[in-house]
């Protein structure tokens, strides 16, 4: 730094005092430092003493502690520093005073000199220069700019070059912009000039045709395209009548100005195409002629459909002819006019037998057939299969006839077989109840197999979607357990009516009772073995001996509601169905336990809740609630009925009764305390129990009444005031009598 300051400079630099570092203390190696810093924006001085900051104003060193000297030349406004030692070092334990010279103004300079014994370091900012024509000074590898900023010489050179190139680019852009604007102005003047001369004022004047599409592009683009009139040119090299809306007339003067765009055909006043005009006229005449012919042929076709035509010579498809008559009268053939004989042509290329599906045909006169043939060839000239000619003496395909005969024979035999089975099993086919007697031998069949057989034998030949039932021996074997070779299903329920026994018509019964004769016929018809059947005998047992009868053999007993006319002896007796083989209660119990566990482990299933308004629930709701079968007619949305509302709720087996009541509260608006929840006739009131504990399964229908004892309140109060206290029950005992005071009886 001393070397730089010792060198003479051509430019006199002027600095302004910006900060003073002050030392307070008796020695240089101890004491306290504070700083006085000048705000360049306001000119005020600030004192920084650790965390304390104070404003010193514009006179940081006091008004009366300075000596003032006036000097006329601004160049003398320099800062002097002096000390007793001459080199700025401390003399003994005392810091020598430093004189501060501060300039107040530039005109008529008033310089104030301040003297301080505490100032330790002075900081200056470059203010301005004198006697320098340039604001940049090059010294060594550095370039000094204004405000004391310096840059390396190579960076300064690069910046200068970039600024120069930027200025050149701006000038080139201005020149290019000027050229473009001049060109646009010139193009606008050219377009206006040509369009002003374009109109043809008289028919006798010479004119030229030009494409309106090209003319629009020429007027819209700055760089006009090459002249192109191919879009308005016909195959004869002239302008057809059909292009009258796509051309524009130009005067000879305007056309000469387009000569510089080259290309394109020139169409003068008389270059309209007479050949195309003649073709159009011929087409119009032909269209009128075709319309008239089609109208005449349509009348003949209607007579054919009404069987009023006796001079038929060729076959056509009846369905195709019906559709052809329904179509509107057109000017030319369409796609639908193809294939008049396609559906009556067999895969071998011959006439399809009329017994085949969709092969109905009619005889049409020769002139009508020729009209059909011409239209079909016009629409599809390469498709000969769709327009095969079949005269009236054409023979049907022998191969297709044989195939159809075999199919017809098979259908006849199947029809006879179904008729015979319906006669052999008249009551079973019609679904009527069979009267039963005690001590008579009957047989049991799966109800599902019997239902499939009934659908098969009663279906018509047109409905082939009903599949044949399975072989009877395989179905019977599935009803027996492999472990004990006993019956895996319980016998159906029996009712006593008018002196006879009848099987109850319950959809839950998996077996149906049939007579011994029906069983023998089924064995002959569906591959069954008579000895392999499941026989059943109905016996009457007294109430006292019922338990003893049940202990001797597994059986299903059904109590009877006897009529008044039945004698007292029959009133005290109960029907018991004995089966051979016996019912395997062990395997049935295992299966029912598994089914029950599956039912108890459901999740995200729907149950239905009725809101009953009135003292008692209607009989329809009670029956629906008692039934365990899902109601397919029930909508998943809330449904309003005459007796109240019906909602479906998504629940799981672990949902508590408390949670269910909260869901009912939210859906139906009945306060939890006012809800009297029922399943059938049973009241459900244990809030800590789960739905599985209360034997509520998917699809069950519950009903609830509003007691209206407690006042209505917001459900949010219940959610905030109470917490659900659900009793955790061991999963292995759920649904059994081992759960605490909760019944497991299936309702």
What does this entry look like structurally?
The protein has 747 residues and is of the alpha+beta class. The protein folds into 6 domains: 14-62 and 117-125, no CATH class; 153-196; 198-272, no CATH class; 277-396, no CATH class; 419-542 and 573-589, DUSP-like, CATH 3.30.2230.10; 601-625 and 644-706, Roll (Ubiquitin-like (UB roll)). The protein contains 18 helices and 29 strands. α5 packs across α6 (318-326). The chain is flat. It starts with a helix and ends in a 26-residue tail after the last helix. The model is unreliable at 64-97, 101-109, 549-568, 630-643 and 737-747 (pLDDT under 50).
Name the features.
747 residues; alpha+beta; 6 domains; six-stranded mixed beta sheet; five-stranded antiparallel beta sheet; 29 strands
């Amino acid at each position: 730094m001393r070397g730089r300051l010792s060198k003479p400079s051509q430019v006199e630099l002027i600095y302004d005092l910006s900060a003073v570092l002050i030392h307070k203390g008796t020695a240089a190696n101890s004491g306290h430092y504070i700083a006085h810093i000048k705000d360049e924006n306001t000119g005020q001085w600030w004192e920084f003493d650790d965390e304390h900051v104070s404003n010193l104003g514009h006179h940081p060193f006091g008004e009366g502690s300075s000596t003032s000297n006036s000097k006329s030349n601004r160049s003398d406004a320099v800062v002097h520093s002096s000390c007793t030692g001459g080199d700025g070092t401390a003399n003994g334990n005392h810091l020598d005073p430093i004189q501060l010279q501060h300039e107040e103004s530039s005109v008529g300079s008033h310089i104030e000199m301040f003297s301080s014994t505490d100032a330790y370091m002075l900081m200056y900012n470059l203010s301005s220069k004198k006697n320098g024509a340039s604001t940049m000074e090059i010294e060594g590898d550095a370039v000094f700019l204004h405000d004391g900023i310096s840059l390396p010489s190579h960076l300064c050179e690069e910046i200068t070059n970039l600024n120069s190139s930027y200025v050149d680019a701006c000038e080139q852009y201005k020149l290019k912009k000027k050229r473009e604007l001049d060109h646009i102005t010139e193009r606008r003047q050219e377009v206006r000039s040509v369009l002003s001369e374009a109109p043809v004022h008289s028919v006798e004047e010479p004119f030229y045709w030009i494409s309106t599409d090209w003319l629009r592009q020429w007027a819209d683009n700055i760089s006009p395209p090459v002249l192109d009139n191919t879009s308005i040119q016909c195959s004869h090299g002239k302008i057809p009548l059909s292009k009258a809306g796509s051309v524009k007339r130009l005067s000879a003067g305007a056309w000469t100005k387009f000569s510089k765009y080259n290309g394109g055909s020139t169409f003068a006043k008389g270059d309209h195409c007479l050949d195309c005009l003649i073709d159009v006229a011929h087409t119009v005449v032909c269209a009128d002629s075709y319309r008239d012919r089609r109208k005449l042929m349509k009348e003949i076709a209607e007579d054919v459909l009404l069987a009023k035509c006796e001079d038929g010579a060729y076959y056509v498809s009846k369905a195709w002819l019906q559709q052809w008559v329904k179509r509107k009268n057109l000017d030319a053939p369409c796609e639908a006019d193809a294939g008049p004989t396609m559906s009556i042509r067999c895969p071998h290329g011959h006439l399809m037998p009329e017994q085949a599906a969709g092969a109905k045909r009619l005889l049409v006169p020769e002139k009508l057939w020729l009209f059909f043939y011409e239209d079909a060839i016009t629409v599809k000239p390469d498709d000969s299969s769709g327009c095969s000619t079949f005269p009236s003496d054409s023979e049907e395909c022998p191969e297709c006839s044989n195939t159809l005969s075999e199919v017809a024979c098979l259908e006849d035999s199947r029809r006879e077989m179904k008729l015979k089975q319906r006669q052999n099993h008249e009551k079973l086919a019609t679904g009527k109840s069979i009267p039963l007697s005690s001590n008579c031998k009957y047989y049991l069949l799966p109800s599902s197999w019997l239902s499939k057989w009934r659908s098969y034998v009663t279906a018509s030949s047109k409905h082939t979607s009903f599949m044949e039932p399975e072989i009877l021996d395989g179905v019977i074997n599935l009803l027996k357990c492999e472990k004990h070779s006993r019956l895996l299903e319980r016998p159906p329920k029996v009712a006593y009516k008018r002196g006879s026994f009848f099987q109850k018509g319950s959809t839950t019964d998996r077996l149906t009772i049939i007579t011994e004769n029906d069983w023998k016929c089924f064995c002959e018809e569906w591959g069954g073995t008579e000895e392999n059947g499941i026989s059943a005998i109905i016996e009457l047992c007294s109430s006292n001996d019922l338990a003893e009868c049940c202990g001797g053999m597994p059986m299903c007993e059904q109590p009877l509601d006897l009529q008044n006319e039945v004698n007292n002896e029959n009133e005290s007796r109960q029907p018991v169905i004995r089966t051979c083989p016996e019912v395997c209660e062990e395997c049935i119990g295992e299966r029912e336990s598994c089914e029950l566990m599956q039912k108890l482990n459901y999740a995200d299933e729907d149950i239905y809740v009725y809101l009953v308004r009135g003292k008692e629930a209607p009989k329809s709701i009670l029956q629906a609630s008692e039934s365990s079968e899902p109601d397919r007619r029930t909508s998943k949305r809330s449904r309003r009925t005459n007796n109240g509302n019906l909602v479906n709720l998504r629940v799981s087996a672990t949902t508590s009764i408390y949670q269910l009541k909260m869901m009912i509260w939210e859906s139906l608006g009945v306060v939890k305390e006012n809800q009297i929840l029922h399943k059938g006739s049973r009241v459900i009131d244990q809030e800590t129990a789960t739905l599985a504990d209360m034997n509520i399964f998917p699809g069950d229908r519950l009903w609830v009444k509003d007691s209206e004892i407690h006042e209505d309140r917001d459900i949010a109060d219940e959610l905030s005031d109470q917490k659900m206290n659900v009793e955790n029950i061991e999963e292995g005992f759920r649904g059994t009598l081992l759960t605490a005071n909760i019944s497991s009886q299936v309702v």
